[in-house]
Amino acid sequence: MPELPETETIARDLDGAIKGRKITKVSVRKPDVLREVSARALATRLRDAKILRSWRRAKLVVIDLDTGDRIVVQPRFTGALLIDDGSLAPSDLNYSTLRMDLDDGRALHYADVRRLGTFALMSQKRFDEYSGKLGIEPLDRSFTAKHLSGVLRATTQPVKKVLMEQRKIAGIGNIYANEALWRAGIDPSRSAASVSLEEAGHLRDSIVGVLEEAIEARGTSFRDYRDARGKRGSFVEKLNAYGRAGLPCHRCGAKLVSTHAVDGRATTMCVRCQH
Q1: Would you call 265 a catalytic residue per the annotation?
Q2: Is 213 part of the annotated catalytic residue set?
C-alpha cells in the first residue's frame, strides 16, 4: 500500500535518524525479499558502509552509501523500515526479514508481514538504469498541466489507470488516484485523451495538493502502513473518496459508489459530480 506520501515520510524519517551512521552487521532471516543480491553478498557489501542520505524515488525508499551502492526498498503492501532503539515492542519485529546493526547500538529492520515487498542493493549505474524507466515525479516543478495533458492525450485508457502507470507518473497508487480525481471532479473511467488542458490543470493541482497534504499527515494508515518509528499516518481522516463507498459525497451529498471495472482496483467516485 505505501505510495508516494508514505515512502516520502519513511525516507525523511530515516534521513533525520540514521544519516552518518555506519552499518556494522547484517542478519538476513528471510532471503526471499532480496533482489539483485544474495544474503551473503549483502552482508559483505554493507559491512562498515556509511549511510550518506535517505530519499524517495516513486514508491521506493533509497539509502545512499559511501561505497557507491544504494539500498532500494519497495515496501509494497505490508513492508516497513523500522528503527529499533530498544523501545519497539517485540511484536513490532515479529515479521523482520533482515536486520542492519548500526554503530550507535540501534538497528534498522526491514519488516514485511506478507513478504511482497523487496529489498535490493544496486550500484549507481544499475540504479540509474532502473530509475530511468520510471516516470516523472508529480512533486517536481516539471510536472505541469501541459506535461500532464500530454501524457493523458497520448492514450485512450481510463484516466485513473494512466495516473497509476509508474512509467508515466511515478508514485501515485490507488488511494491518491481516487482522491485526486474526486477533487478534480473527473470520472476515473473517462478516456484520458478526452481530458482537456483546463481539466488537466485542475487535475495536476489536485494531485499535488493531495500528495502534499498526505505527506504533512505522515501518510494514510488503514491496516499495515507504519512510519520508521512504527507510528500510523493520519490522512485517513481526510479521505474524500477512497474507502468511503456508500457514504455521502463531501461535495454534493450523493452516495459514493465503488467499482472494480475501471482497472481491477477499487475505484470510489461520485456519479453526480465527477464527469
Answers
A1: yes
A2: no
pLDDT in tens, 156-167: 999 999 999 999
Residue 3 is a catalytic residue: yes
> Which residue out of 19, 231, 265, 272 is catalytically annotated?
265
Please give the pLDDT value at position 226.
72
Does residue 57 have an active-site annotation?
A: no
Q: Under a CB-based contact definition with an 8 Å cutoff, are residues 31 and 117 in contact?
A: no
The residues pairing with 99 across neighbouring beta strands, listed in sequence order, are 27, 109
Q: What is the pLDDT of residues 225-246, one digit of tens each?
A: 777 677 777 898 899 999 999 9
**CATH number, domain 4-131:** 3.20.190.10
Question: What would the DSSP string read from start to end of 29-44?
Answer: S-GGGEESS-HHHHHH
**CATH, range 145-269:** 1.10.8.50
- All CATH 3.20.190.10 domain ranges of the chain, comma separated, are 4-131
